[in-house]
Specification:
alpha/beta; Rossmann fold; two-stranded antiparallel sheet; 11 strands; elongated
Length: 375
């Protein structure tokens, strides 16, 4: 029986029980008036009246202590400096509450509550320099435009998107496919800490839960559910980002895809999305135009001056500045000359120039030379 449990404790228990998905949990809560303790103490006949609930789930609810150590979980929450948000908490993201299968609870590390529009930037773990540059640029420019940047803290595109938002001193949230105490990949420990300090880390999974084939799709529905739009930067046709894009479509979010080379596997997923109706994304302007965040509907630009001056364009990185310095005054240079003058490897320079083309900083002429855009 579930005696002497607070609502928060009962939510913690329900959220962590095995083999009960979020749809079933939300149905149970609906039948029992939103009271998680009443679910744990519910009569068998009433529990079984809920679609998807059979003898196995009733047994799990009855014997929850065999599956979950509540005292240990509360101690881990305190030690981690984390909190647990339920759908009834003010800090629980309102936009996520409205999807068909919202998590009944979220572990959160970091105090940021989603108080501005958000865009997810997702993509492959095995990415190209071009993809990383585009994702970082989008993360930075979206943060400067006032959006929170959402991603999954994975290698590749996720890491670049989070890093770009943090460089702009913007807000970013990472949604994990494991417990908050498991940092994966381990090389993102510093990034994890920085996001915690300036944004938030979220997970619906209890401490100690490792990522698996089931947890990643569950994580992906939260990534898309938190956002107004999802941008896929690089993905093969079977990548996890395609699942996120599918969830986004089902949730009524706008899906964007960044084009790549037609002979590159990491671009095939994006090209398929564009073919199937996703919005072509060449940069942050395409996102702002499609979402139509104008006047009062548009989040305030984080770089606007306090006196109301018009915001400047996105800042140039040192690498972009070094390339543009050789293209000013109307000079046009081919790849070999640019590589020689900048001292950059051709592969690095190619990725940088492709990203600069997307940002409309440079243009590639028919003769293969690059020149700076005017105006």
């Amino acid at each position: 029986m579930a005696t002497n449990l607070s609502a928060k404790q009962a939510f913690l228990i329900l959220n962590a029980l095995p083999n009960i998905g979020p749809i079933t949990l939300n149905r149970l809560l609906g039948v029992f008036g939103g009271d998680p303790a009443a679910v744990l103490a519910g009569e068998e006949a009433r529990l079984k009246s809920v679609k998807g609930v059979g003898a196995a789930i009733v047994k799990t609810l009855r014997e929850w202590r065999e599956h979950f150590d509540l005292a240990r979980e509360e101690a881990l929450l305190a030690k981690a400096g984390a909190d647990f948000l339920t759908t009834g908490d003010e800090a629980y993201p309102a936009i996520l509450r409205r999807i068909s299968d919202p998590p009944i609870g979220l572990y959160r590390k970091g105090v940021y509550a989603l108080d501005r529009p958000a865009v997810a930037v997702v993509g492959s773990r095995r990415t190209t320099l071009y993809g990383q540059a585009v994702a970082k640029s989008l993360g930075r420019d979206l943060a400067r435009a006032g959006f929170c940047v959402i991603s999954g803290l994975a290698r590749g595109i996720d890491t670049a998107a989070h890093s770009g938002a943090l460089e702009a001193d913007g807000k970013t949230m990472a949604v994990l496919g494991c417990g908050l105490d498991i940092i994966y990949p381990p090389e993102n420990l510093d990034l994890y800490r920085e996001i915690t300090a300036k944004g938030a880390i979220l997970s619906e999974f209890a401490f100690g839960r490792r990522a698996d084939r089931q947890s990643f799709p569950m994580r992906n529905r939260i990534v898309s559910g938190l956002c107004d739009a999802v941008v896929v930067v690089e993905s093969d046709v079977n990548g996890g980002s395609m699942i996120t894009a599918r969830f986004a479509g089902e949730q009524g979010r706008t899906v964007f895809a960044v084009p790549g080379r037609i002979d590159q596997a990491s671009a095939k997923g994006c090209h398929q999305l564009i073919r199937d109706g996703a919005v072509l994304c060449r940069g942050v302007d395409d996102i702002l135009e499609e979402l139509n965040y104008l006047s009062g509907l548009r989040p305030s630009d984080q770089t606007a001056e306090a006196d109301g001056a018009a915001p400047a364009g996105p800042p140039l990185s040192e690498e972009e500045e070094s390339v543009l310095a050789h293209l000013r005054n109307g000079e046009a240079l081919d790849m070999d000359r640019l590589a020689g003058q900048t001292g950059k490897a051709p592969s690095e320079l190619m990725a940088l120039l492709m990203m600069m083309e997307l940002k409309r900083l440079v243009v590639k002429r028919l003769d293969g030379c690059y020149e700076a855009r005017s105006g």
